[in-house]
Structure formats: structure tokens, C-alpha cells
Design a protein that fits this description.
Blueprint (H helix, E strand, L loop, with lengths): L10 E3 L5 E3 L14 E2 L6 E5 L2 E4 L5 E4 L2 E4 L19 H10 L5 E4 L2 E5 L27 H4 L10 H15 L4 H4 L2 E4 L7 E2 L4 E2 L3 H13 L7 E5 L2 E4 L3 E11 L8 E9 L14 E5 L7 E3 L9 E4 L7 E4 L127 H7 L1
């Protein structure tokens, strides 16, 4: 990145800590107090007003107003942001290239992302670019056949795209900075600009995507960068709105369109991690593209809808109050359904019998006799009332005892007759089948030869 100038800052922080914009440069009186510093570190910056310039090829152009890093006092030392400032462009771009597994390459001060995706989201169909686009055979790249995951769980191409979008957002999506990034698709001869691959978040930029989707001129998978503003869930679908107020050029009520991510009940986990306010990068697949949906109800505008099927089509992150983004992440991969078990054909050969019969030590021990479970104890009944205590009568009031009567004589009972035990009748003998008649077998050849 040394061949070209460093990224131009669009914001700075004045002496009082007030964040100012490059659009305020040149105003009289100045609405800020010098010295100026980087909004994320303590490095000094200077304000550069808008100036006419002439390029190295002799073409005149106008350099926009911006903030630039002040030169280092040490001679020969290039100015750079202080660690760990997120605007360290060289450090961030080289980190993206190192983590891309060879898909992001530094070229003439810029970064070229080689977008290599799976041929399809859920099948093994070959990649078929739309008719009319210049064709090239897909490279024999292992990444094109199998998606490799890095931390976070995203393929390297989508991870690099999300980090590039974060870096450009820190610089205010300045057009001169955006021109340094290109995307190489496997089915196209020449790389496409970043603005033809990633659309948003500005409504004017998304309007160009709407025109391409409506006319069917999208030649390669594209991405949409937006912010979640609404989530709706029904019994069958889940919808997530990531962009609104997209001009369509049509009369009211179709003057504005919206961008949605929508999944069915079987792919609902793909949108569960998203929350309102999160930043989202939604990437189309070769077989899952953005489509235009025109609602039948009056009063509803057109919708640009993507139905993602794989976890690597969505990258999401949050931004804190200072504008610093978190690391991009993706939903968990969908678990594949378990297929039916294949039945094995039984072998025609029977297993051979053991050479030696099992000894008594290997005989299975008989199971212990099962006893009936004990009956449950009867539940205790309600408490019985206590018996009344006997009434005590004094001896003076008691009646006189009657005269004693001798007991009657006891006669012994005769012995009970002894009955013979009951013996059950003997069962009749079971009928025995007569022995089978023995057939007279024909003597063999050897027996007949001996009789001769």
C-alpha cells in the first residue's frame, strides 16, 4: 500500500474533544479548535481543504477536503496511527490478506478479493453464470469445492468481505478509498469494482441494485450491507428488514422499496442471532440470488428478498458508541438431516460351529427366581374414638353379690370320623404314534458287486 497515499480521514477530534466532519473544513470562522487529532487515537492530523490537482498522467481533478496524518518529526519515518487504533490501514489490510487463506491479494496499493464460493448452497450442481456474461472455467481450487471455516465461523472470502466493509465504514465510505478494492469472480474475466459487488448502506447505492434485480442483469453473486431495523416471525417464515427507503423511480405507493432477509421454518436458526440495530452483510450464492417480490396488497412497495440457505451467507456484527465494530460472526451451521440407514444383506454362509463345546464355566448362569413384589401396606384408617372409662361405684352403694352357683358338668365330644384322602383320577395314557415303516433301500453299487 506504499505506492498510493494512505486513506483519507473524513472525521477528526478537536482540542475540546468535539468530533468534526471534513465538510466543515474551509468554513469561516472555523467551527473547531486546533490542534486536531485522530478520532480513535492521539496522533495529530491536519485539515486539507478542497484543492484542484493534476494527476501524473496530466489530467486535472479536484481533491476533496479531508484530514491527513501529520508528518512524523523523525526524518524518514512514515506517519501511521498509534496502536491499537482501528484506522491503521496498512496493518488492517495486511491482516485481512493473511487471514484470507490466499483469497485476498495486495495489488498496486489496493486489495483484490478473489470471491470463491461453493458452487451451490445445498446441492452439487455446477456453477452456471447467467447468459451473456464472459465465461471462464472455474479454477481447480479446493476452496471452490469445500468451504473452509476460520474463526469466526465464516468462509475466508465472506470474512474478508465483512472486514473490508468495516474498514470502509470507519473512513466514511469515501469513494477514493472504495476504489482500492476489487472483487474477482471465478466466472468473469476481469475483476469488478467493490461498488458492483457490495451494495449499501446508502439508499442511492441500493437503488442501483434494485434496477439490476428488476431487469435481471445481475451477472454474479452480490452482497448487501445494511442494518437490522425490523424482525417479524410467523408460524411459517421469519423476515428481517435490513434496508428501507430505496428509490425505485416508480409512482407512489411504489416509489420506495425495501431489502429483506427471509427464511422458512426449516432455516429459522440462520436469523435467530440477529437483533435490531446489528450490522449485516448478506451474500447471495450462485443458486440463491436476490429476487424482486411485488406484494399483491395495495399500499405495499416492492421488496428485494434473499432467502439464505447456508450459514456463510450472513455475517453480522455490532458497533459501539464510538463507531468501533466488533469481529464479524455468522450463525451456526445448520445440522444435516440424518439419512435412512442402509440394510446389509445377510451372508449366505452360516457361521462355523465352535471346535470345542463350551465348558461349564462359560454356561450362562440361570436367572434368580423372581418373587412377587410385596403387597403395599394398607393405609391407616381414621382414628377411632377412645373407649369411655368405667364408672367407679363406692362399696357402700354397691348391690349385694348373689349366692355362688356350682358350674355344670362338662361332657367330652365324640371323635370326628376319619375320611380317606381324595385321590385325583389317573390321566389316561397318551396315544403313541406307530413306528414308521422302514423302507427297503436299494443296495448300493458296492453291495451288488459283492453279491456277484
Amino acid at each position: 500500500m506504499a505506492d498510493r497515499q494512505s486513506f483519507k480521514l473524513q472525521q477528526a477530534r478537536d482540542k475540546n474533544g468535539l468530533v468534526i466532519s471534513a465538510r466543515q473544513i474551509g468554513q469561516v470562522p472555523e467551527p473547531f479548535t486546533r490542534p486536531l487529532r485522530c478520532p480513535y487515537c492521539e496522533h495529530e492530523v491536519i485539515a486539507q481543504p478542497e484543492q484542484p490537482r493534476i494527476s501524473k498522467k496530466g489530467k486535472p481533478f479536484t481533491r476533496g477536503a479531508h484530514f491527513a496524518l501529520a508528518k512524523e518529526k523523525e526524518k524518514g519515518r512514515a506517519a501511521e496511527h498509534l496502536a491499537p487504533c482501528p484506522l491503521r490501514t496498512d496493518h488492517t489490510v495486511h491482516a485481512i490478506a493473511r487471514a484470507s487463506q490466499g483469497l485476498a491479494e495486495l495489488r498496486s496499493g489496493g486489495l483484490q478479493l478473489r470471491l470463491v464460493l461453493a458452487p451451490t448452497s445445498d446441492t452439487k450442481a455446477p456453477l452456471l453464470p447467467p447468459a451473456g456474461s464472459p465465461l471462464l472455467a472455474p479454477p481447480a481450487d479446493p476452496v471452490n469445492l469445500k468451504i473452509h471455516s476460520v474463526d469466526p465461523a465464516l468462509p475466508p472470502a465472506v470474512t474478508s468481505a465483512a472486514r473490508i466493509a468495516q474498514l470502509l465504514a470507519l473512513y466514511g465510505d469515501d469513494p477514493e478509498n472504495v476504489e482500492r478494492f476489487t472483487v474477482k469472480h471465478p466466472g468473469l474475466r476481469t475483476p469488478v469494482p467493490w461498488t458492483d459487488f457490495c451494495f449499501g448502506p446508502e439508499p442511492g447505492h441500493l437503488a442501483r441494485l434494485y434496477q439490476q434485480v428488476a431487469s435481471g442483469t445481475v451477472r454474479h453473486p452480490v452482497a448487501v450491507l445494511g442494518q437490522v431495523t425490523q424482525i417479524r416471525t410467523t408460524d411459517t417464515t421469519t423476515s428481517c428488514r435490513i434496508a428501507t427507503n430505496i428509490p425505485t423511480g416508480l409512482p407512489t405507493p411504489l416509489a420506495h422499496a425495501e431489502v429483506y432477509l427471509r427464511v422458512g421454518s426449516d432455516h429459522r436458526p440462520l436469523l435467530e442471532p440477529l437483533a435490531e440495530g446489528a450490522r449485516v452483510l448478506a451474500l447471495a450464492a450462485p443458486d440463491v440470488a436476490f429476487k424482486l417480490w411485488k406484494p399483491d396488497r395495495e399500499g405495499l412497495g416492492h421488496q428485494v428478498v434473499l432467502w439464505p440457505r447456508a450459514h456463510w451467507q450472513i455475517a453480522h456484527w455490532n458497533v459501539d458508541g464510538a463507531g468501533i465494530p466488533t469481529a464479524p460472526r455468522s450463525p451456526s451451521p445448520l445440522s444435516e438431516p440424518v439419512g435412512p440407514r442402509t440394510r446389509r444383506r445377510p451372508s449366505s454362509a452360516r457361521p462355523a460351529a465352535p471346535a470345542h463345546p463350551p465348558t461349564s464355566s462359560h454356561r450362562p448362569t440361570p436367572a434368580p427366581p423372581t418373587t412377587a413384589p410385596p403387597l403395599p401396606a394398607a393405609a391407616p384408617g381414621p382414628p377411632q374414638p377412645a373407649a369411655p372409662a368405667p364408672e367407679v361405684i363406692p362399696a357402700s352403694e354397691a348391690a349385694p353379690a348373689p349366692p355362688a352357683v356350682p358350674p355344670p358338668p362338662v361332657t367330652p365330644l365324640p371323635p370326628a370320623p376319619v375320611e380317606p384322602p381324595v385321590v385325583p383320577p389317573a390321566a389316561p395314557p397318551q396315544p403313541v404314534a406307530p413306528p414308521a415303516e422302514r423302507r427297503n433301500r436299494r443296495p448300493g453299487f458296492l453291495a451288488r458287486w459283492r453279491r456277484r
